[in-house]
Q: What sequence folds into this?
């Protein structure tokens, strides 16, 4: 991945920057810099309308092939899109799970029938998705899922029973991709299926999980006889692990550059506050700000290196990608701590509930979860050691 862009790329940058400048106005002006970590509860309906506005302008799914409704943008242009989107302060995307995870997975592994059924709604910004991976006993250990799926010959449908947890935006989603066990006698990563499940149906219950921020981005989802058509399994029964791992490759994809621009916006806010309230005169604070700035640059360069090693349409990445989640999650948690220290001790005291948190207070509380979801820091270190460095696997204690 080169660290400079062609004249054509820069023209593309001007096009998206101008579109955002012209459209983040009027009814959408209030959405600027909203909907990020810990702020996903703000303006949900308006941000769904923004998703459709993006679709009208042809700015959803820019990296998808043109035959599936995307722009077919190069990696360089995708990087530019996500950077300019965040630089403009455009709101957090409510459709990012469909666009960044479900869609690319269907393009890579799905049937043509599945692509024609599900991709248009994602491109149009009219259908939202959530991810049914984690369970109470299978968080970072995805291979331990207990949710079951059985095929009912009489109805010709798959029947799902089980529970998922920490399901982001399930309360707003139309569909969920679900990992479930198709072979009840299977263990670990064998005998799994990858299912496409409609949320608005009998047998699906969503219960919000109230977080320390007072909001409920995460949910529990219960499947009690929920159904999906026979054609709504991606791959064959038993292929679920392969599809799930391919999806995780897309999760480490080009949108990470947009995530970093959002981090830059947060760091800029911390720096501005430090200048205003005098905290920047403290040499320790100044040193921590400088370190945060330097590490964010390192994060960018490593992401560019990571993307340059992307191999194939199945989302697979080279070993450099293994360090990314651990690095950004730890960095973001430290930024939240820096923000609190810049705000000063009074930011830790509120009059009482129900209370309103500032953006930086909410960010500090929410980023505690960054080192947990998407694979805990401990799991990430194991992955680096075992898959990246070839070290012996961690001993597992056999069940009694």
A:
């Amino acid at each position: 991945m080169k660290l400079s862009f062609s004249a054509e790329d820069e023209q593309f940058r001007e096009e998206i920057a101008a579109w955002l400048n012209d459209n983040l106005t009027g009814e959408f002006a209030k959405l600027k810099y909203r909907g990020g970590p810990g702020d996903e509860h703000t303006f949900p309906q308006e941000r769904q309308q923004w998703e459709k506005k993006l679709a009208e302008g042809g700015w959803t799914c820019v990296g998808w092939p043109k035959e599936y409704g995307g722009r077919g943008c190069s990696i360089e242009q995708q990087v530019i899109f996500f950077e300019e989107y965040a630089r403009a302060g455009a709101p957090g995307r409510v459709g990012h799970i469909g666009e960044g995870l479900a869609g690319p997975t269907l393009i890579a592994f799905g049937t043509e029938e599945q692509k024609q059924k599900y991709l248009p709604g994602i491109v149009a910004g009219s259908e939202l998705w959530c991810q049914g991976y984690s369970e109470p006993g299978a968080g970072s250990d995805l291979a331990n899922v207990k949710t079951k799926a059985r095929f009912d010959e009489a109805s010709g449908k798959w029947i799902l029973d089980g529970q998922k947890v920490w399901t982001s935006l399930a309360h707003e989603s139309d569909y969920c991709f679900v990992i479930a066990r198709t072979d009840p006698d299977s263990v670990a990563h064998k005998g799994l299926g990858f299912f496409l499940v409609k949320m608005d149906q009998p047998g699906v219950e969503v219960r919000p999980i109230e977080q320390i921020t007072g909001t409920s981005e995460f949910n529990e989802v219960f499947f009690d006889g929920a159904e999906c058509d026979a054609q709504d399994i991606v791959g064959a029964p038993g292929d679920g692990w392969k599809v799930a791992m391919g999806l995780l490759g897309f999760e480490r994809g080009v949108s990470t550059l947009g995530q970093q621009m959002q981090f830059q916006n947060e760091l800029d806010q911390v720096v501005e506050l430090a200048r205003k309230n005098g905290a920047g005169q403290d040499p320790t604070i100044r040193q921590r700000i400088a370190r945060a700035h330097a590490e964010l640059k390192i994060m960018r360069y490593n992401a560019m290196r990571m993307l340059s090693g992307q191999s194939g349409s199945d989302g697979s990445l080279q070993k450099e990608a293994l360090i990314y989640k651990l690095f950004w999650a730890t960095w973001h948690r430290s930024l939240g701590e820096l923000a609190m220290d810049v705000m000063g001790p009074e930011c830790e005291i509120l009059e009482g509930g129900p209370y309103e948190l500032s953006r930086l207070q909410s960010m500090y509380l929410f980023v505690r979860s960054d080192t947990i979801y998407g694979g805990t820091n401990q799991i990430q270190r194991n992955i680096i050691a075992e898959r990246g460095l070839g070290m012996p696997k961690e001993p597992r204690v056999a069940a009694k």
